[in-house]
Kinase-like domain-containing protein (Microdochium trichocladiopsis), 206 residues
Amino acid sequence: MWIVCSHDLSYKAWLENGHHFKGDYEDAEKMLCDIAKALRYLQGQRVLHNDIKPSNILYRRETGAKLIDFGCAQHGPKTRSGRGSPWYTPPEYLAHGYGGFPAEIWGLGIVMIFLLKLMPLPEFSQGWITEDIKLNHKDKTELKDIEHKKGVKAKQAMGAWLTTVRRVRSMLPKNAVAETVYKMLDGYLDTRVQAQELVTHINNQG
Ligand SMILES: Nc1ncnc2c1ncn2[C@@H]1O[C@H](COP(=O)(O)OP(=O)(O)OP(=O)(O)O)[C@@H](O)[C@H]1O
Ligand SMILES: [Mg+2]
């Protein structure tokens, strides 16, 4: 294991002005490039990280970004676990109760809107229990009333969050990183950019 002498992105040294990212555009660009390559590598190994978020990315300007914490990782292509953090969970999890390699790209897309300073660290927003989303995919007659209510509450919270993400996506600025993030936060699985295409796209921009 590599021990990296750098802070994770949720650490106070990387935050300012009400939990906004303190770094600049070049930091965001470098992290997108490094973590996109990490995701391409993992997908090549058929490994899902399942917990892409700022606190699982270590970053230092001199050495770049490293993805850490494989505590939720699984073999792909599908994950049914609900252990990841709610804000980074993709719309397909709400619709079908599972994620996969496209979910990793979505998670990185959410990290990127934080790095582009378009929203504060999502962890400071109202959350929900990811696992509870799956209650909405069970037969209602098999659920206790309290479980059904928990499922509905989580679904509403996630729906509201996805509306916020769609709004931020529609207002992304015109620059190379934001243009890439737009492709990562595509709500449709079939058209969301994939890891290999993402790395190629970034290399072509550079
Ligand atoms: N390889 C590493 N090099 C340097 N620091 C590390 C490394 N792995 C972890 N850390 C430090 O330890 C902290 C916690 O590690 P990790 O994310 O693996 O566990 P966790 O945060 O307890 O899990 P969770 O993300 O589920 O809360 C990281 O934020 C980072 O500061
Ligand atoms: Mg962690």
